[in-house]
Each structure stands twice: as structure tokens, then as C-alpha cells.
Amino acid sequence: MIPSLILATSPTLLWAHQIRYHQATQALANDLFDFLDDDLKPFVLLLALPTDPTQCARCLEPEDCGLPSEPFDGAVARGKVIQLTAPRPYVESDDVPADMVRRKHEVLGIRDAVQETLDQLDEHAPHQHFAGWPVEMHGHYVVTVLRLQRKPLRAYPSLRPHRFYTSGRPLAPSLLVAAMYRFNDETVKALKDVAAGLGFFVRPRESEELLRSAGKALMDTPAQALGLDPAMTQLFSTCNTISSLRYEGAEGVGKLLLARRGHPNLEEIFALTCPTALTDYRAVRKLLEMTTPDVHLLADGDSVYALGRQVGPYDAEREDLFIISFVTHYAWELQHAGQVLLRSHYGLPGLPHTRLNRTGFRKALKRTFALTDPAKVERLWDVVLEASRQKHGTLLVITTEALAEADRLKLQCTLIEPVPLTPLITQLVTSIDGAVLLDPEGYCYSIGVILDGRASGRGDGARGARYNSALRYVESSEYPCIAIVVSEDGLVDVIPSERE
Prior knowledge:
Blueprint: H1 18-36, E1 43-50, E2 58-61, H2 75-85, H3 98-121, E3 127-131, E4 135-137, E5 140-149, H4 150-154, H5 175-191, H6 206-225, H7 235-244, E6 246-247, E7 250-251, E8 254-258, E9 266-277, H8 281-288, E10 296-299, E11 303-310, E12 322-328, E13 331-336, E14 339-345, E15 348-350, H9 358-369, H10 374-387, E16 394-399, H11 402-408, E17 414-420, H12 423-429, E18 435-438, E19 443-449, H13 465-476, E20 481-486, E21 492-496
Parallel strand pairs: 8-10, 16-18
Antiparallel strand pairs: 1-2, 1-5, 3-5, 4-5, 6-7, 8-12, 9-11, 10-11, 12-13, 13-14, 14-15, 16-20, 17-19, 18-19, 20-21
């Protein structure tokens, strides 16, 4: 017997602003998770669990969410069993009434019951659902469920899960999970509002603020591992500030090893008589000048106490030795056991991406130009790969109307005789400022191009002029085009004019 679908249940509104709330949460999820990785493809659905055991669970929004209804029946009852039998992460204190702690554990049990069901349904699916915090409304617990694609979820490194703040809140093992936590916080806040969902608007910078908050949350995890109080240790803002400072005009490049003093994998070369507080930003930036590829600053999370190096094989299971790598001006990474957990660029955290993804680039060519010829794709790939090695950054624009655009922009570029780009020619033409204009055949028509275009609603003030000018040009172009932006810190953005 095929189980009935939730969509088969009557889609009546549970509350007045239900549709508005769902639209806003979907928009927020799109902005937030598309920024982290386009392949995550976030999808939001609302699940209603009746407090009356005689009633059935149902999906509120959207109607075609495609989940079977029967497994969610009785989730509230199962949640209460979990509440009574599972260890309680939230603890009572003078500041938190016992009744509030009890309610937290009750909804936590319901959330866990829903998540267990989702995990069973997703066992062989290409996606994974994540249950948010249930909110009681009109005789139901409303659960905001987020669906993400499994493959990109597994592509990024993570610390071990199931660690908590002293208050009982979970610590984030990765930036993706931290972003999910912040997304859930926003949805719960909106649902608990007097007119749930009515005032839930996704502002232009909303996702960036959530990402910064997620970055702060992730940095609390190494802070706690070092025995510090995360609430008193602002590692995220500290690293951002240090990376933003110059010393005698030079950008800060080097590494800071975070571990308790005396860690078996750290060797001190010389110690500071008076450790320098990490919040003494200019002093730390000055000390960073003494580092080399083999010698780093040693810090306990509170202060820099020595210069030294990492020695011996590190047991990654310990998760008590972290590396802050200052890559270039206002860019740094959080690393553990050779893996990058977070990369912050101008104060905005992101997931670690490879310098350039061949598969993603090939998909962009196919989607934008319907280009699938292996020889042409490989020729363009060689050009882009060479451009990605340009240490000062560069910008390529591939467009079907490269010749016409070169003529239109001739007063703000250097025209050249059409030439098929080779790695050598690419190295030469990308060594100057401005964009390189070429067509899908790989022929270049102009260099040093100053791009134009209308202001974009997706512009990012934290990124440089190169990225934003490319975005404006692509969004304003009347022709199919792709911009490849190579930043000075090695990041490569592929911006197509047509998105899936």
C-alpha cells in the first residue's frame, strides 16, 4: 500500500499569515544558503503536528512538499517519551525558571522525534531534511523544515557534533550547521511574534548578518575546546580586526596556532615575558611580521605567549589544536587537521572552496552558451586555469558578442587583433588591470576593459570593485555571458548571466 502524501491533506490555513511566513523563510533560505553553495538548493516546508493524538499531521506549505504523512502521526507523543528518557542538555539555574527549562526539553523532544522520522525517510534520498524548533500555535506544533542537497553537505569538513554551551545550546561543528542554527533562530522568532510572519521581511543584507553571526558561532567551538568561555571570547571579530590591519603598509600574512600552552604538538622557539592579549590588535599584527612559513605565533585563545612551530603527528580526534591562517589583507581561514572550516573575506565568512571547480565551470558553459564541445570547453578551461594563477587577481568576461562589446567599450579598453588565447597569452593579458574580453571560441578582442552596468541588488559591499563590476556587467548584459573573477586571495567566482 502506497502511503498517502501530506499534500493530500486539506491545505487549510492554520493561521492568517501562514503563506507570507513561508514565502519569507524560503527567500531567506535562498539568500543564505545560495551564498554558501549554489548546489545546496534550499527548500523550506512547514509541518503541523497536532497536540490532539486523534488528529493527523499535515504539511501546511507548500502543498506539494512530497512527504508521507503517517510517519509524523504521534510525533508529539514520541517527543514526550524522548523528553523523559534522554539526557537533558538544558540545565536549571537561578536565571532560568524550572518551567521554562521543562518546556524547552518538551519541544526539543518533539524536534528530535521529527528529525528521527526525517532521517528515516531521507535514508536513500539525494537530499536531507532538518527539523527546526517547534512552535505551538492553535493546537499544533509548527515545525519549519529545511531541505538541502546531500552531496554538497558532505563536501565540507566538520568538527565532531553533540557539544554544548554551558547553557545547553548546541555548539556548531561547521559553518553550514551554524548557518542552519541562525536560520532556525530567525524562523522561531518570526513564529513567536504576535502576528506570526506578517512582519517577517528579508532585507537586502539579512543573509550577510546571519552569516556573520554564524561565523561568530562557529568560532565559539574552538574557544570552548581551549577551555575558554565562548561568551567572553570574540575570536571571530578578533581575527577580522587583526587581518584588516597593515604594518608599515604591508598586509598581514602568517599563521597563529591556537592551543593550550604545553600542547604536545607545539614547540616554543622563544616565549614572551608578558603575553600579548589577542585584543591588542596592533601588537599582534606587529608580532605577525616575525612569522615565517615554518614559525608561527602561539596563542591560547586569550593571548599570544610565544613563537614556535607544530611538531609530531597530531591526533585530530583531540580537536584541541586550531590554526588561524592570515591569507592576505582582510582575509583569514580557520583550519583544523589540514582542513579549512571557514574562510572569512572582508568580515564575511564563507565555506572553503577550491581555487576553481572544473565541473562547475563546465556546467556554467553548458547552461549559458549550450557549449558542450570537449575541445572548446578544454581550451576555455586552460585559459581560466591560467588566469586563476594571477597573484594580483584578474577578470575574464566570456560573451557571445565579444567583438561588438569590444567596439562599444573601445574608449575604455585596449583593442587587440583577435587572437585565440593560450596559457602564455593569458598570462600576459591578465597582468594589467581591467577585464579581458573573449568569446566562447576562446578568441580575445580587448584587454584592460573597464566594465559598465547597472547597480545590482546582489552587490556585495564586502567584496572589491572587481567582483561588483563583474556582477553589474553580467546582470546588465543583453547577451549570454560569464564573468570569472579571480581575487587577490585566490578565490575564484564564476558568475553566469543565466542561473538554474
